[in-house]
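Colleagues,

Please find the record for the two-part complex below.
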Amino acid sequence: MKRLIKLAVNGTEHEVAVNARETLLDLLRNHLHLTGAKLGCDQQVCGSCTVLLDGLPVSSCSVLALDADGCSVLTIEGLASDGELHPIQRAFIEKGALQCAYCIPGMILAVKALQDQLSNPSEEEIRHFLAGNICRCGCQMEILQVARLMTQAAR
Amino acid sequence: MGLRDFEYIEPRTVKEACAGLTEHPEEARIYAGGTSLLLLMKQGIVRPTYLVNIKKISNLRYIRNDSPTLKIGSLTTHHDLEISPVIKRYFPVVSEAEREIANIRVRSTGTVGGNLGFAEPLTDLPPIFIALDASVRIEGPQAERTIPLEELFAGYYETTMQPGELLTEILIHQAPPNSGLKYIRFSAGSDKPAVGCAVGVTLDAGSGACREARIVLGCVAPTPLRVREAEAILKGKEFRPELAEQAAQIAARACSPLADLRGSEDYKRDIVRVLTRRAVAEAYQKAGAARA
């Protein structure tokens, strides 16, 4: 049986009929055609499906779509505004902090959550916060550089 | 992998949740953060017909300081505990352990009640909470009861909760003066712990001898394991390295770890020995520092 849920995705209100067994990632990708969030490990380890649910980073692969009823969701598609990339997105490009980029939508949202949650974090706090987002291409050093730049710029 | 079909129930009160669970005693599972449950459902290991989502129940997410008792609502997330100033102040061992659990996403969704009620063996909180002599409040369709946390666990992924019952609150008491608590986890990076050891001691203010001791192992038995024989070794005695080693050897013998990709049985036993020895020494030291 499908249930109707209401949620705001990237600032736009949606009403979607979902099956109980569908995940938030299914909802975003299959119903709303927002394919930025990626399915990676499917067990909350890799972080490539990271989106912000009411501001908190979650693994959208392991949260039911029904859980997002009445919530606001931010995905990578909602970060740029008026055709202007978000400063975090620009910094990823400028620092070359990506290779295949499969992990990058999740990585950028993780940096966004870090920026929102901690002001002026230490190196250790940055590494601890981002430890659950994995880049298998090996761009961690550049990604950390971006994270430092962004959290310091926001100071 | 995808989830199999199930019926979804969304109670608004504890009463409704208990009713839903009572109606389907065998086929219903409680869904809170889902961090462990959904994983097992994706793998087809757990196949509930009904999923009872308790997250829409209000008033189950709180950290309340009713000194000397701290009350934690079962829907409180790991992240809530990690950043709580009250926890940091009175139970720093809990904040430190929370910080090491999985990753920020799991901590943001996973709940404390779910962590305990799911009885997943490879986890950090149960040994720490048992060392702190925590209790849990369990509400059922007819009555509610409060039991020592130690009595909640019945086996791997099994608890003593009856069908229809819901864990609603965790109660931890501030330790008496001259107490020290140490938890050490052994794991590869952000992986689940392979071994955990929590040691709490309370020393006599005058002599510095141990009055109360709790040695609780995590991950190395079907349930969190209190090693009472090792606790008895410490009682009435001041700290000596040989004493810690003796208790540690008893702990290593008492546990029954399973061999897995995290280590062989013998390897884990040896880790238990080393962690227990260190945790006993540090718990004494902390209690001694509190005494000074």
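The first strand of chain B starts at residue 7 and ends at 9.

Comments are welcome before we finalize the supplementary table.
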